[in-house]
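Protein in question kept underneath.
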Amino acid sequence: MSRTHEAGALHADVGFRGPAWLRPPEDPNALHPGLWPRNVTKNDAGVLTVAGVEVTELAQRFGTPAYIVDEADFRARCREFREGFAGWQVYYAAKAFCPTAVLRWVAEEGLGLDVCTGGELAAACHAGFPTDRIKMHGNNKSLAELTRALETGVGRIVIDSFDEIDRLAKLAVDRGQRVSVLVRVKVGVEAHTHEYIATAHEDQKFGFSLAGGEAERAVERVLAEPALELVGLHSHIGSQIFDTSGFEVAARRVVGLYAQLRERHDVELRELCLGGGFGIAYTSQDDPEPPDQLAAELQRIVEHECRGFDVPVPALSVEPGRAIAGPAVFTLYEVGTVKVVELDAHASRTYVAVDGGMSDNIRTALYDADFSCTLASRRSAAPPVLSRVVGKHCEAGDIVVKDEFLPGDVRPGDLLAVPATGAYCRSLASTYNHVPRPPVVAVRDGEARVIVRRETEEDLLRLDVL
């Protein structure tokens, strides 16, 4: 069965029963253990708690919708990547989740930071992040962004175009600086992920292609600029990746380029970044590997390829992407309406509408992403019913959770929680339909505090010029 309309199965084949991987649970109140932050449980009354605080209290104090982050879980994931990839430099992705407090946690846990715009760099500086641990990406860095990177002492800049080589070299000469750079290589790997988050195939905007010698020409251009210090190569094949086979192909090709540069240009590269973009569990169908296992596999891959090309193993770095922030956050909503739509004589769908939607989580509409959810404010004895959680926006595609079994008595006023919303949900949030963006609430050791306040209607109108 293929969906033929943005609203999904209602406009597709009649009799749709949900995706093949989704099965009715024995207990619709139970939490799937792989989807939630480690300090999230349900108490005897069926109320979801995070680090000892009930979500009913959070909803009363901070309102809904709200992004709830388990601070201890977030920090633990930082440490697991730092320790699992011991000897590597681990870069947290600012684009995934960028509150100032969160960037301070990342700095305190000893990670580096990826930024890809001037705004993300400004957030890092506002957080007091050590700039020598920042790496700056971006396929179209402006003069202003590059200037600020040089002014603040960003540790690495990833070169993405020939225009950028000229632009950065001139700025560095004018400022009397020498800038450490990596060249981003497009290795032609089709990552097993969504088209929009696969970043290493030929027909996309990032990096220099190995095909036709473009990447080698880029390196030659960098080597010809005394103000630019080539320290390494960078490769990134995509995001939400579970299969390391793509990294094997990418490593073979980028290490092959390294060997070629070494032979032709007498270049000894100190660093190699294989990207990362490791997948997380959004639903029960996902089974991500732990950081230490990922590290062992990637280390084996790089060492094998370096032996094959007879080159020394350079210093290695990795970009986990969503794997740190994603699982540490859930979104809390209040149910507003419930509708049962009859599809045919044998099938119906329950639509559960919440007080947020695509303005706080556009990933379902943008990537056809799957999410799970749970009734968070009480225990129910009702049998599970296949449901679709939708938002309040004037779009048929305003879907938060396409398919999940919820208790059949879900009603207005209930709280629902959607796990794994830490990565890209807040970052991609909008004010569509003039709906203010939710707050970010951090919970740790029984204490909750706002780290990003809720937007207000005054905020929405502040930029208007009458």
